Amino acid sequence: MPVVPPTPEELAELAARYGFQLSDADRKSFAGLVEANLAAHEAVERLYARSAPSAPHRDYEWPQDNPLGAWYVRTRIPPSGDGPLSGREVVIKDNIAVAGVPMMNGSRAVEGFVPRRDATVVSRVLAAGGTVVGKAVCEDLCYSGSSFTSAGGPVRNPWDPTRHAGGSSSGNAALLAAGEADLAIGGDQGGSVRIPAAFCGVVGHKPTHGLVPYTGAFPIETTIDHLGPMTRTVRDAALLLSVLAGDDGFDPRQHRTPEPPDYLAAVEQDIRGVRVGVLTEGFGLPVSEPGVDDAVRAAADRLAAAGAVVSEVSVPWHREGLDVWTVIGTDGTARQMIDGNGYGMNVPGRYDPELMVHFAQGRRVHADDMSDTLKTMILTGAYAAQRYDMRHYAMARELAWELRAGYDAALTQVDVLVLPTVPYVAKPLPGPDATREERMVNALGMVGNTAPFDASGHPAISVPAAPVDGLPTGLMIAGRRFDDATVLRVAAAYEREVGGFPSAAR
């Protein structure tokens, strides 16, 4: 499409925005210079059209039987090779591109988009023998820890359909808990793999930041974007991580990423002598339910019974981490995901120009359809960026190094940290009369323990702890950066100690 030069009015508006004092002669001169530079933009249009991929034809169908509201679209994409996932069915969170299959990312602003290229994690699943069987519903642009913000409707918890399933990888967790998928790939920026895993009683692993390539997934904020496995067993999480992990050469999040170890071998090892730190600051939050804290402390006792050396550990920075994450998750997200149309600029990674344009146009048309969590994030982040010149974002990113160092220091004394994934069991889905403030608490009130590890980049897994009032909750195990193997090893030992994890009765 032709690149149209600015009108005199548009040029004057741009000059005023940047404080340029231009005379009529200046404006005429700059108009010619700008138009000359825009010739390169037209050339790039032609060059990109020459090399841009076309979406492959893949059959798909809209789900007919979908009582939990967890399927977005069904498909059956056969593997491209043989490997460790042969015979396994994999569902993909709907913020991850599957070429030729519709993508909505829980949002009217993205609805109707069909990716042209598979995300790296999808290509790796297919190459490893896995069969992709569909896309799972996720929350509106993935910005919720509950499961009622998706534009397509709520995702219901298989343990109690009146309650939320957690988010933002809500559909993944519900489908796994209900036995409708073998394996799933989710995304985690503030807990979005671990939170629904905890509320639905499945396994969710957030890898070390940068271990799994994010290429082809809809970004929220580059410094906190993660993709990771969601499964019913720890061994399956290790299996799927072994397929997904490693550099792809396109993701700027992947720098200094070591070669992944043998995660399957790690989960077969016992934990005699492994040092487990019960993180003091992860318990007794203002919103914590005592039964959840008790269930996780009991889980730590089971680790001791399996041979671990368990002690109490304090990381004062953990309670400060939520504030650090919140600034990154408002100011950074508003700048990248909203103003930057998902991808932002200035990083040498893969971009999706078609998705950026589709989303930019869609979010303008469907701005009023956005969830209250998104609107609050946008208003907060845009105001802070404009009024305070992004200083708080810069401060938060600097403080993230101190948050990381706080965990690193504790992890010289112990090998892993344990704490509740979520502070309470799944709450009822909000009713039509719920206030905006009540919906906000329901959507984001549970991220206090999960979000700090997104800001610090440490690996963390959620596995089912003992049920509380008949509902699942989660034991979170966090470890050293790029030592995902030890995190999985401790999780697998706990799974063996309790004799496996229960499934939802439907």
TrEMBL record:
Residues 82-488 form the Amidase domain. InterPro entries: Amidase, Amidase_CS, Amidase_dom, AS_sf. Gene3D superfamilies: Amidase signature (AS) domain, Glu-tRNAGln amidotransferase C subunit, N-terminal domain. It comes from Amycolatopsis deserti. This is Amidase.
